[in-house]
Amino acid sequence: MLTYIIRRLLQGMVVILLVTVFTFGLMHLAPGDPIDIMVGEARVTDEQIERIRAQWGLDRPVHEQYFVWLGNAFQGDFGQSVVRRGTDVSEMVTEAAWVTLQLNILAMIVSIGIALPVGMIAAIRRYSTFDYVSMLGATLGVALPNFWVGLMLIFLFAGTFGILPSSGLRTWSAFILPVAVLALEQTALLARMMRSSTIDVMTQDFVNVARAKGLAEFPVIFRHIARNALLPVVTIIGYRLSFILSGTIVVETVFSVPGLGQLFVTSVQRLDYQVMQAIVLLFAVAVVVGNLLTDLTYAYIDPRIRIQ
Amino acid sequence: MSETSEDRPVQRSQTESGSSELARLQTNQRSEFRRALNRFMRYRAGLVGLGFIVILTILAIFPMVFAPENPTEIFPGMRGASPSSDFWLGNDHVGRDVLSRTIWGAQTALLVGVLATTITAVLGVAIGAIAGYFGGWTDSILSRLIDTVMAVPLLAILLVLAAVLGPSLRNVILIIGALVWTQFARVVRADMMSLRERDYVLAARAIGAKAPRLIMRHMLPNILGPVIVMFTLGIGSIIILEAALSFLGLGVQPPTPSWGRSLSDARPHIMRFPHMAIVPGVMITLTVLAFNLIGDGLRDALDPRQRE
Q: What residues of chain B lie within 8 A of the CB of A26, using their CB?
């Protein structure tokens, strides 16, 4: 187990280093002098420019610049936003990340709460009307583009019925629409997986044994089927972090939610490189750490994984 | 799956001459294709999806024949007009014909979907095959490359690259193609690893076949099934990606009609002109749904082991 943990940790660190090379490279991929990117359109004195140059090592060769940038990034210093003058990037990102975290935890609770029971019932009552209707819904849920669903919900609930706010997060009711849209695709996917996972488990010998020894249907379902069927479904949630973050980018923009996703889109549209770099790196670290934790949890629960 | 008589391999005597060897192979090939086709034809939802895509493809190839108006022509006084007998799906916020823009948008969606998926498939199969066949250091390096690309949420990295390189139809296709290949690579890599130890591959190697021939002639044909399934499902998800990029303003640029762009145009007018948003959204959903259904049908037909 220890060698497995160490190997996965090293692999994760290699990946994060490669991502930093990419995010650093972005500034140099763009046309023009990086110094122009860093100061934007603001009027600055030559003296200030020299100071920024020295701070970020822009007068040195590219590989040295990278290490200066990496050192600053490690200390959480991504410089200042070009668009919001005088604001530290790290401050903006932390503030927005909190909003995003709240939204996505709520969405996760909603989708797990709906998907797991629906998937299990569909599997147990296989080929029933419930099975067909819920799986039809799940198939549709995967195909629906979340930004369009968001627009339609705004039209219906903020426009026609006028009962929910269309943007921002000032009241608790403003959470309902963005959380619903964020949860939609996740719910559809998890329900389908829970169904197939339950079907796999249901046909296994130990379930037959449990029934044969005279156990009532209820304990068979909960103690024997549910526990084993949950394993692959719950672990897959960890691997979906990167898709969840993609979803939050779109949904926060549609509902004008001041989270990481919206901050990211506005900084990309205005080419605010420092903010872009910080968020890309944060996303990557989150995904790598998330995958690592999932791997370790899985290896802990299921000993077969460790031996490979 | 029920074993019907046609599913059984044709038994032939061993004494056939060399010339009929070729004929035997051809019959066998045809029967394999036939069986897959029969299995696909049994899945009605897949056929409905296929029908929809055929119609959409015809519209996309000849939009000038089917679109009643020029998609970029602005009709004075028709700003945001509701559907009428002249303009069946109404007009958008500047007075263009929504129906014509939707038909031309199909061309953009399918063009991006098919071309980007092709690039993706070629890259992913090549990288996966090399990593899986050679193993060792080659595999370690390529696997870290795959991990790195997967570490950053897809939409985030697409947005950054589109913004830095400049959004356009060509760039959207290239960027998506260059980044979405990881799933192909992972699946192909795993399959190649298991195929490498098979007897027929060892036999081919024993008679002196070199790596390129082993990979191209003996191994890749055996993983064609999952690749075709991923290709079909990939088109659907790439169409959503293109729409999301265009919705966020960093995809296909005006005046090229694109469903995602139309939704982006519709967003500020969602309360007054909802018809602008409904049509492109329904088209994206139906197209993605159709490709997913075909993909499901193909999975059952080509790769019965991998059912969900």
A: 160, 164
